[in-house]
Amino acid sequence: MTAIKAYAAYDAETPLKPYTIERNDIGEKQVQIEILYSGVCHSDIHTAKGDWGPAIYPLVPGHEIVGKITAVGNGVTKFKVGELAGVGCFVDSCRTCVSCKAGDEQFCEEGMTGTYNSYERGTTRPTYGGYSTSITTDEDYTLHVSDKLDLTGVAPLLCAGITTYSPLRRLKVGKGHKVGILGLGGLGHMAVKFAASFGAEVTMLSHSPSKEADAKKLGAHHFALTSDAEVMKSLANEFDVILNTVSADHDYNEYLNLLNTNGTMIIVGMPSAPAVIPAATLVLKRRSIMGSLIGGIAETQEMLDYCAEHNITSDVEVIDMAYINEAYERMNKSDVKYRFVIDMVSLK
Ligand code: NAP
Ligand code: ZN
Ligand code: ZN
């Protein structure tokens, strides 16, 4: 065991504070990663604040991790010391169920082992995430990271990137599709980049008028202010796909009505309140709602390779670890351009 510096939520109410965790010694098939940057996802806030139920406290969030390999176990074949590596939202799964075998480890029938707020498989030892200086992971749950891209902008790809890439690919979004991206935050800005890169006609649907110019710079062809009733009326039945990234409770029906016949709303944002949806909203236009959860390991690697090839990274604001509580407050006010990324040097 090695003592590692970290930052933790001690409960749902108080600010995050310094905390020391114990990381396991490196196993046969494990790699040790010195964490260089860690992205800040709204799921970190939901989990720390108990929005989805009680968390395992003290909780060390962070599941958008990039760093350098500092040691490898004797049985490791995929990584070498000195290489860059990434870790996303989970660090293990059963490896034998139908979902794991299909490369959908995030849907593991025994439950994936989350990078934080989980227990190491078969133990009562909590997992701790990326708001820390080092992590030890199984090589099969570790990603290769290109050295061609700016590393600060790569960290958010490990969650915001794959969460938006995966469902857009599943629906084969591309040329000829009209796509609405709802919510311009961490997930939303990656969704705009991917949908535009895949060739779709992209409209940013945002409740923040100040984000119009940025939305267009990110690749959106149009911007629609969702608080403007006239604008919303003009977009009725407009979209083939809407990717909903909103983190706060909201009325889904307003946006479902913007889908055309056969249109699909992909839900990735996870507000805590349940949605009430009249059957007619779906039935009368054969509309669908689908959920999507991050992506499997192979697809995450595919996404990282796609980003390296097409020079796609996240637009980030790099912060020190001690700024995390302000960052959470700003994210709750939709004030982030467009992902906070912690420089882990600030924790050393
Ligand atoms: P974020 O950076 O905080 O962005 C959320 C965006 O939602 C805001 O920037 C804002 O965009 C919009 N929004 C916020 N409050 C709103 C309100 N009251 N009404 C309308 N729009 C509002 O969050 P994120 O990190 O992208 O995460 C978004 C959600 O996805 C969270 O719930 C998170 O837990 C979830 N998530 C899910 C997965 C998955 O696998 N399914 C993975 C990661 C995250 P505008 O200012 O443009 O309106
Ligand atoms: Zn996340
Ligand atoms: Zn499984």
Uncertain parts: none
CATH topology of the largest domain: Quinone Oxidoreductase, Chain A, domain 1
N to C succession of SSEs: EEEHEEEHEEEHHEHEHEHEHEHEHEHE
Instruction: Find the structural class using helix and strand composition.
Output: alpha/beta
Number of domains: 2
Number of strands: 17
CATH architecture annotation of the largest domain: Alpha-Beta Complex
Percentage of helical residues?
Answer: 10-25%
Tell me the overall shape.
globular
Radius of gyration: 20 Å
Bin the strand percentage.
Answer: 25-35%
CATH C-level name of the largest domain: Alpha Beta
* CATH homologous superfamily grouping of the largest domain: Medium-chain alcohol dehydrogenases, catalytic domain
Span of the ends, CA to CA: 18 Å
State the major sheet: 7 strands, mixed
Q: What is the average per-residue confidence, as pLDDT, rounded to a whole number? A: 97
The molecules bound to the chains, other than polymers, are: NADP nicotinamide-adenine-dinucleotide phosphate, zinc ion
Number of helices: 11
